[in-house]
Amino acid sequence: MQTAVINGTVQYSYVNITQDAIPIWGQCHRRIGNNVVLMIESINSACYRCVHLKLRSRNVLQVNTVNSDFLSKCWRNESLAVCPSEEVLNKINATTEIMLYKKFDAEGHVIRKEYCPIHGKFTFTYDVSDDASNKAVCFNRKSSIDSCPSGSALNLHFQDCSFENNDTTFECLGNWEGRNNQQYLALLGPGPNNERILQYRCAIYHEEKNGSISIAVASDSTCINNLHHALYGHEALHLTPIPQNNWPTEVIHSRCSFPEWLVGKWQHIIVNENTFLYKDHTSFKTYTFKCLARSNTDQTKYSVFSRTQCGEESYNCLWVKQRSTNVMEFQLGIQTNKSYDPDLCSDSNFLPDTWITQARLRKEPGECPVAGEYTGQLPDGSLFCAKLSSDCQAPDTMFYTVSDCSHSQVYEERQYKCLGQWEENGLLYTYTQRIDLAPSFYECFVGSIISDKQINIMEAGEQCQRLKNPLDYGMKLYKQGACYGTHPSPKPVMPLDNNNASNHLTTQSTNYWTPTSVTPYTEFDNGISSSASTSFQKLPIFAILLIIFNLYRLI
Predict the structure, then answer these.
(1) What pLDDT shows up at residue 131?
(2) Quick check: 201 and 218 in contact, CB under 8 A?
(3) Theoretical Cys-Cys bridge with 233: which of 48, 200, 227, 319, CB 3.0 to 4.6 Å?
(4) Residue of 207 and 531 predicted with greater confidence
């Protein structure tokens, strides 16, 4: 039953996720991997329910539960609050799915834009799979779609269809790989008949080698209802790329090629012999760089011809550095030119210490720069302690926890995979991937190994920011023992005693060494409204993580 459809209009409810509770669902009681047991406590008793949380992107949180009546019932015996297993999660319709779409972040800021995986210009056909005799179709490929000027949105231009011509824009909220390796996409766009009321939509897409793309869209905000695969959903689109202009003569006749170590797929980059495709998640442009010539003065710089997904063209210089087997960094020249100019590769055309860091997607085994168990106090809060520990059997994995120094109350637990490290100006940079969150979360540490008993470390953002000073401002950690797997350090686990543990749920990356310290807000509005913007004005816009909860459920 779709409880959020009223008079044919999709409507939503709001859910606040605080540090240690989802007030409408319960208080955080126990965490077991991505499963969280929630507790609702009264004077004489308590009841429990279990949810599986999967952060699909910065803006999308997928919740699964084995009970179809999850919102109306909970269990007095914790052992009866069954959590979804991986086997059950992989089965279609075996769990109840709830999609949460973030509206504002913890500080009340509007959500950050996300890059759309579909970029460029296309013609498309369109079909709606319903039984209506007058269903909407576009079969003649006069309609077009593009991601211009911003790669964070898809602009659809319906022309000569079975309905009136119109233009529609969908904002991209995130994409991820889901069940059966299918590629999912979350969208925010207008409702039926281009209503001003925005609706959240889920889609599956697939790109062929020739550049054509199939997209199927669900009938609602879930990723289940009337959504089967990229060719079959409530709405179906087939995109054909519009041919681009020919490449300039310099590109066609160039014998330039990028180094072999650079070829492959990276976070936001795909490199083959002479082409460097970069999806800029800051400007939301997709750049295709064609190699023209290697610099005579610096073998790590390349003159390139650049073209964006919207057809903007220029000449520039690309500077690439291999930091480790799995990590590279690059810069683009500040100034561009309308014609080929080798001087674009001069040092004066680059900013000092400003790099874009990227990890290889097919990673080689690596290891973390330190091994053992280290503890210390947070530099900006003496009441909080941190522990950094590693696994002897998995040298590329490290664990990080923040706790109350007085009561050993765990506030946060993280797990990292070390991808690579390098030394620069006497400091050690380590690029990592958060493996307790969505696969797209990468973070960088900068530190200094003071001795075999002490390290100083601090966060350096996703792009390994330079000009950080861990010696004066970093957290001091002192070695307490060997890595777990050998005596004496055990593998870190979340505490199971509810009276001594408050596991703070977060759905976005925070500073590495700062625990979430916002006072929980316990009131919430679960009213249904036909206008998301109007309804939200009733809610506090301060220290909460506000997520729109789509009430669609399967029973």
Answers:
(1) 57
(2) yes
(3) 227
(4) 207
Contacts of 502 (CB under 8 A, 6+ apart): 19, 20, 28, 409, 410, 411
Binned at pLDDT 50, 70 and 90, residue 33 comes out as confident
In this predicted structure, the answer to whether residue 232 has a pLDDT above a threshold of 70 is yes
- The residue to which tokens 């009337």 are assigned: 226
Helices (H) and strands (E) in the chain, counts: 4, 36
* 553 has a pLDDT exceeding 90: no
Give CA–CA dist 190/371, Å, rounded.
Answer: 52
- Residue 508's CB is within 10 A of a number of other CB atoms, namely 18
Tell me how far CA of residue 152 lies from CA of 112, 115, 118, 126, 380, in angstroms: 10, 5, 9, 22, 36
With contact defined as beta carbons under 8 Å apart, do 129 and 145 qualify?
no
- Per-residue tokens: 219: 């009938």
The SS3 of residue 535 is helix
Which residue reads 């062929």 in tokens? 208
The SS3 call for residue 471 is helix
pLDDT at 12: 74
Q: Which helix (H) or strand (E) holds 451?
A: none
A 10 A CB-CB count for 106 gives 20
Where b means 16+ CB within 10 Å and e means fewer, 212-233 reads ebbbbbbbbbbbbbbbeebeeb
306 strand-pairing partners = 289, 314
Backbone angles phi, psi at 459, to 5 degrees: -75, 145
Phi, psi of 318 (to 5 degrees): -115, 125
Q: Residue 541's pLDDT band (boundaries 50, 70, 90)?
A: very low
CA distances 128 to 235, 270, 518, Å, are 5, 34, 46
In 3D space, the residue among 136, 140, 117, 120 whose CA is nearest the CA of residue 128 turns out to be 136
pLDDT of residue 391: 83
Residue 33 identity: G
What's the token pair of residue 310?
A: 């919207």
Residue 504 has pLDDT above 60, yes or no: no
Partners of residue 51 on adjacent β-strands: 36
- Among the listed residues 253, 277, 252, 258, the one whose alpha carbon sits nearest the alpha carbon of residue 266: 277
3-state helix, strand, coil in the chain (%, to 5): 5, 45, 45
Q: Taking the domains of the chain in order of start, what are their residue ranges?
A: 5-106+518-549, 121-241, 249-359, 373-500
